[in-house]
Every structure is written in C-alpha cells, then in structure tokens.
Amino acid sequence: MTFDYDGYAGAYLRVDLSTGQIQKHSLPSEWVENYLGGNGIGIKILWDEVPETANPLGPDNKLIVATGPLCGSPMPNSGRMEFIGKSPLTGIYGDANAGGQFGPELKFSGYDVIIFEGQASEPVYLYINNDQVELRSARDIWGLGTYAAETRLQTIHCDPALKTALIGPAGENLVRFAGIQVTYRRSAARCGLGAVMGSKKLKGVAVRGTKGIHFKKPKVLESFSLQMHKNIRRNEFFPGIQKYGTSGLVALMQPIGRFPTQNFRQGHFEEYEAISGETLREAHLVRDIACFNCPLGCDKMYSVEEGEFAGCQTSSVEYETLNSLGARICNRNLEALLKANEMCDDLGLDSISAGNAISFAMELAELGIWKESELNGLDLSWGNYHTAIQLLHDMSYRQGFLGDLLADGAARAARWLGRNSERYAMHVKGQDIPAQDGRAQQSMGLAHVTSSRGADHLKAFPTIDETGYPSEAVRRYGEQYLPDLVNPLATRYKAMLVKDGEDFGAIVDSSGNCKSGGTFVMAEIYWQEQADAIAAATSMDIDAQKLRQIGERIYNLQRCYNALHGITSSDDVLPWRFTKVPSPSGNARGSVCHLEIMLPEYYAIRGWNPDDGLPTLKTMQRLGLEAEYQRMEHAIACGATKAARMFLGWAAPYTEKVEEIT
Amino acid sequence: MTTVKVRFFNLLAVHAGNKSRIFEFTEETTVAQMLAQMANEFPPAFRDMVYQQDKISPHLRIFLNERLLYEKEFDTVLEDGDSLMLFPAIAGG
Prior knowledge:
Chain A is an alpha+beta fold. Chain B contains three helices and seven strands, in the order βαβααβββββ.
C-alpha cells in the first residue's frame, strides 16, 4: 500500500512491547483524509483498537504518538505533537500535546505516527535513527528523572542533538497524572499518559531524523508561512506575550476574579504580586527560549541564585503552574514554586493535577477530615510549600499513605477516602480543573464540561471573551454577536464559541501547530489559513469547509468513545463551587456559571441528543460515522457502557451546595 | 482633590517606567481624560500601546475598582480613592 500525499513522512511504526516486534507501514490514506493527523488519527486508532474493556494501565491500552501535516513545516509554531491513549486518570479518551523539538524530529526520521501496544517485561526505550528502529534496554535509565535520562541517552548515542520523549519516576510508579517530557523540557502533561508508558515499561523514545519532508507546493507554502510569521509578529498580542509568556496572565486574572485560590474558594490571590510574571522575569530570568520554528518564544529559562532553593533551574513556568502550585495552595514563595516546577518536569508530573491534589489535601486538613495517623507528620496548612514539595516527591514514588493516595488524583482519592471528601475534589470527569474559573468566564465553564478529556481550557480555548476583544471577535464571527460574545459574564453565543473552538482546536492539534501561537492567541490563522497551509503542504483536496467537517468528525468520535465508557450528559457538570457559590471577587463578583443555559444550546448546535448529550444518528451520518453510531448504540443497549463506567474509578463531582468556611 | 491610584502591568509598566502611580486632580476627570494625560506624560511607546489611530486601543484592558470597563464607559468620572489597573493585549491560559 502506498501513501498518496506530500507533507507527511508517509509511514507509521507499530511497536509490540510484549513481543518486541516492530513493524513499519505506510500511513493509510483514509486516516489523513478523514482525521488529518495528531489527535484525529489518535482517536481513530483508539476507537478501532482499544475497547471499552481495556484497562488504561493494562496491555490492551495503546499509546499513540502522532504528528500532523504542518508539524516540521515552515508554518509558524509548527513543533507541536500529540500523545493519545485511554487516560488512567479519567478512564476515558485522553490526549496530551507538547511543543519543543521532538515532533518535527520524529517526522524528519520518516514516521508520522508510532503505536505502542502490549507491555514489555523489562524496561525499554525505542531508539530511532532514520531507518534504524530498535527497542533497547532501559535498565540503566529506569528510575532516573527526565533531565538525567535525556542526558544519559544523548551520551550513550554520542548525539547531543538526540530528541527524547521520556517519563520520570512518576510515570514508572503509575502516578495517574504522570506526564511525558519532550526535548527541550516541554511537557505533554495532561491525562496521565506517562503512566501508560510506565505500565508498558517504556521509559521513552529517542529519535534522530535527517530526512526532509516533501511538500507539494514548497514555494507557496514558504511564502504563505512567511506572511503568517509577519502577521504574528505584528499582532497586538505579540509583544506582551513574548516578554512574559503565559506567566503574564497572573496579574490580569486578579481583577477578572479568575485566579483560583485556596482550592477554588477564592477567585483572586491577595499576594499575587509575589508570584506574578513581572516578578518572575525581574528576579529569575536567565533567557528566552522557543519551540521549533516559533517566532514568539513564550518559554523562558529561570534560575534561583540564592536561598533555600539556590541551584534550581527550570523552564516553562506557565500561568497554570503559578496557580496550581502557587495561589491554589496559597503559596507565595516564588523560589519554592520554581523548585516545584523543576521537580514536576524532572519527576514527570502534570503540575495542574499535582497542585489540585495538594490543594484538595490541604482543604481536607483544614476541615479535619484526615486522621492524624494518615498524615505521617506532614503539616498541611495552607501555604506550606515545604509540605507541597514533599508531597510532589511522595506522590511520584507513591510513598506514605498520603503520597500513594494522592498519586491517583483528587477525584479517585475522594472516592476511596469517602468522609464527604468528594465535595472538595475540583474536577470534571476525573480531570482536575485548570486555573480557569467558569464563574468569571462563562465560556470556560462550558468548555470544562464539554471537553473530551475532562476539565480543560485548551480543547475549546475560548480566549476572545477572556476580557473581551471585539476586533478578534468581529474578524472571526462578525459584528452581529457583539457585545455578548466578548462579555465574559454573558452566556449568549458561548455555545457557538465553544463548539467552534473545539472543532478548530481538534484541527490544530491534528495539524501540528500551536494554540498559543497564531491560531487562538494572536488569532491570525483560522479555518481558511489552516486549510491553505495544509493544501500547499500536502496536495490534499482540502478547503475550509472540509476542514470544519474533519474537526467536527474528530470531536464527535471522541465524544462517542467516551460514551462507550458510560459518559453521558449527566457527567457534563461542574462541582458546586462553580454553579452554587457566587464568585467572591473582581469583575465576576456575584456570578455563577450558568451551564443550565449554555449546555442545551451547545447540544443543539452540535446535533447531540438533548437528553443524553450524545451525537444523534443524523449527525453521525452527516460526518460519515454511521457504523460508529451503530457500535455506540449497541454498546449502550447491551449494557456494555454501564459495565465500563464502573471501572472509571473517580467520585462524581459533588454538585449540591456546601457551606463555605469563612 | 481627587486621588486615583493607577497600576500598570506587563509592557505598560515597562514603558511607564513604573508599576504604579498616584494621580491627583482638582477638576472633574474621566477615565479617557486620564489616559490622555498619561499618554502625554509617558514615553511614546506607552502612547502607542494605549492609542490606536488616535482612539483608545481596543486591546487596552482597563479595570476600575476591579471591574472591567467597556468602551462606552470610558467617560466615567473618576472619584476620590478609585483604583485603575491597565493591561496591554494579553490572553491565553
């Protein structure tokens, strides 16, 4: 079988870790025609090959490493790639995206996709050097942190340009929110796919590629890409984001009331200036760094020169981490926060879920829910960063009662613990809620519940109503939706915004470019531009309309995959704090998230059944997914989805009002 | 006398040369008038971020006492003790 399109490497690897067999295949044309790449191909493989009965940490789960047609291309910010698998944290569809250099290098080696299946009996890593593809023993690097393991592999292979995707001790010890760290120090953090690697005894992938990628119309693509680079550099958002990266958002979120503090009890952090992007840059910047082909360079390297945490060197200190290991646990010590960030990257932890597990534990301590004997002498007072740092270590190694319990994530810990602790696990579908309070931005509340990987801001990534940018809204949607579309507290048109963001986001995540660099933030690239770039790169018969349909197909299939696991509209809920307790501060003061208004509208726009929130036959037929619909219906009818649901493992979000401590 | 505290963030603080500043007025002053005064006083780079083609930039975010102001509210008269926060275009998560 041959592959018909340019712009792709044109081949994929299937690696059976149980037998050690490695197969090379041509990329099936129907995969890219219907699902494009990245998480589109990922959900297609998951749907076809990983049944609802598969244990996320068992041999039947698969880990899919996937690039897309724009990954490694001249288009700006084209270093993104995806890991896809069934999530050990949520039990449903999971994916994690990373920038850096790994994705393009994989394509340059001649492969668009790798499928890992089975389980190795001894630790291994996959070594790829163009046509040379081998499983090698990872016995010498098992147990190492990601920094040391990466250096060790580069030394072993005498190749400082080797690019790696590695897990740390957290993944090895099956921490359910373990991430995957890719060169250079970028995290594919969410959904616990590092634990999937750990369960397969797969320490990582080391890749070196020197082949080129053949583009159909290289001059057209180059000229178009150059224009996009220029547009992004001229974009009004460019200077501020280039200077501070996402850390610059810390200050902005205070007056909006969208900076979760004390396990989401507050919407702003009194001491935010101690951990703001401005303070971070002034006090700790070493240099700006950038992912593959990125004109922005929102990443930064930071160091701590003095004090208790002297010697710490870390990068990608994102807004999310400044919240999750800062305000959310009431930690105002920036140096401790940098140390915690360094540890998360080295141990291989998702800093969002790690912080959420710690803030959950701290709130339970305040409420007296823990027994003294369970704490192993830890002081879980709010703001105790020594405890937070100890817990990052303990969770990664599953040490002690608390470390082992929290390593399963707040939602599972709550189910195991009981004692009304589920009231304080802030999650949707088992996924910890990021630092985006839906009370202060209605679209974000909706985005959390409709996201296919559980609570998430990045699936829909509704940025234009964060603080309201009319010119961006007019450019994309037209003037008729103003002012409500850009009012963060208005519910009108937010279903449309979220649905469009999810579909376009599915395309961006399947193409290999970046949501923070030109597609959502600095919104220069939208359906038409993305279609033009893909057409020039691949020779596919693609236009904006066809691309929209692919985006919709991907998102609907992700929803159906979750439906196989018993997910329905009854899971599209936020914890009580977001719907029952008015936001206590800032622009959002007095506001709650109105899912009851937005969600029915969202189901209607999507063509989903208003009762169970699942795609209708008509919708699935329109997307060419009739067979998939039949499988979903059959699984529901025969009770397979109910059975699968029993294994999800998390306590459902608590939705009834609870009196807050004042 | 009306005293207003203004806080600058991100590149606005860089261009203003300060993170915050206290302004005092003896006459009635609106938010728009205050921006004009700052634009005259601070270096041109500050003005370039606050104005676009002589109009207040649609990308400037202004919070008055932690409430987001929309364009139609830029003629709000400032009161003694008011607090303003100014942000350039930033977004994301």
